Amino acid sequence: MNNRIQPWYRLMALGIGSMVFAVLAPTVVQAADPPTVQSLSETTTKLQISIDTTWVLLSGFLVFFMQTGFAMLEAGLLRQRSVVNALLENFINAAVTILTWWAIGFGIAFGTSFGGLFGIDTFFLSQLPAADGSYPLGAPGSTAAINTYTLFFFQFAFAATATTITTGSMAGRTDFIGDLIYSGIIGGISYPLVVHWAWNANGWLTKLYYHDFAGSSVVHTVGGWTALIGAYLLGPRPGRPPWGTLPPAHNLGLATLGTMILWFGWYGFNPGSTLSTANPGLMGLVTINTTLAASTAALATIIFQYIRTGKWDLVYCLNGSLAGLVGITAPCAFVAPWAAVLIGLTGGILVVLGIDFIESVHIDDPVGAFSVHGINGMMGTLSIGLFGQAELTLNKKAGLFLGGGFDLLAIQLLGLVAIAIFTIGFAFLMYGGLKAIGRLRVNPQGDGIGIDIYQHGASVWPDVYPITEAEKKATQTSEINTFEKE
């Protein structure tokens, strides 16, 4: 009997509870503070910061993934005897770069400016979370409304790109310890200094309204010139064909995969440099310009090379697409889509002529890094002074071909010359110092048996390119000698 009555008690209790809630609920609602314009504004700001932070982190992840693209591209374009070395250098460069970027690089780049030349604080990420657990926004030299750690990571990915560009030009004959040293120096000193000039809010080029949205000059021109000086001081790879004839790529599949990864990663590189989702139209423009330039450059290169050789050349097509991506990196936010097509067309032809020129002066650049990054980084930077849209540029001035005169072009040229002169001089000092201590080029015995076997005791294809017992013994008993260029 009691078991049958018990459900009714439950229903009665539920009914009474509902009546009490109905009576008291209005009082509870009235007790809460009504929303105000200020509270809604604060909520909106917090939401925007959260969205922007997510966007910048995801973009940073894409840029970091470009390390994989560089590794695959270089591995595919090099000879079998140096693939392991290239893979390890691309991998370890990121590990070295983040440490020097954390210690001093980020502070030099985005710290409080000393005369517009370099930062003087924010070393070792010194802004700790506040006592209430909140995180500081940006950095003294940045106006981005994202927390310091997010900005640090995104910019670190760019620094890693600048350092890894050099591995392509210097592949196959660089001492591994020397690679570790110069990667740390580039990521901690030379690259951050240029970042400060052009991207710090108080940098001397920033105050002149120098335009480089995502790094054609700051990242790629710096990386390209540094790579070229390194390749020049190193001398050519052992056993390469006569000048004018490029050594054949050992795996075009890897090279193609690497290029496609780099193109994909560029959607973090360029659109991510908005550092905010507040202007969706700008994000769309940057994305479209990036795609148009890369596509046009790939077509321009493959057609131009076909006219020259009668062959549809995959390697040149791959480098052509990268040339277009490098060229559009600076102007992607400042030009209309039709200009992006012209920039891509120019880059696709320049990369071919650039490779020819570098070969003609007897500098061994195994992957065409200077032609892709150096030459087209400079071209893309100057293109703003030619095609810049007044409604899009920072100082609301148009480029030369759009009736704006020489003002914008002159500023771009000034900044580019300053960056190139500094980078060339710094690279000579850095690599010259490494050469003086015998840490620039691998030991001559490494040239003889191959850098993979000599420095790493490994082969990327051991069943095709095996290591003999004699070679193993040679790597164990050899003495380190300074390489003397003939």
In a few lines, what is going on in this structure?
67% of the residues lie in helices and 3% in strands. It has 16 helices and four strands.
Give a description of the structure.
This protein has 486 residues and is mainly α. It has 16 helices and four strands. The protein has a two-stranded antiparallel ribbon. Strands 3-4 form a two-stranded antiparallel ribbon. Strand 1 and strand 2 (118-119) form a beta hairpin. Helix 3 crosses helix 4. The protein starts with a helix and ends in a 9-residue tail after the last helix. 52% of the residues are buried.
Task: Note the main attributes of this structure.
486 residues; mainly alpha; two-stranded antiparallel sheet; 16 helices; 4 strands; globular; disordered C terminus; membrane
End-to-end Cα distance, whole Å, is 108 Å
Q: How would you sum up the global shape?
A: globular
Query: Based on helices, strands and strand pairing, what is the structural class?
Result: mainly alpha
User: How helix-rich are the residues, as a percent range?
Assistant: 55-70%
Query: Biggest sheet, strands in spatial order?
Result: 1-2
- Average predicted confidence as pLDDT: 90
Radius of gyration over all CA atoms, rounded: 28 Å
Please provide the count of β strands.
Answer: 4
Largest sheet: 2 strands, antiparallel
Count of individual helical segments: 16
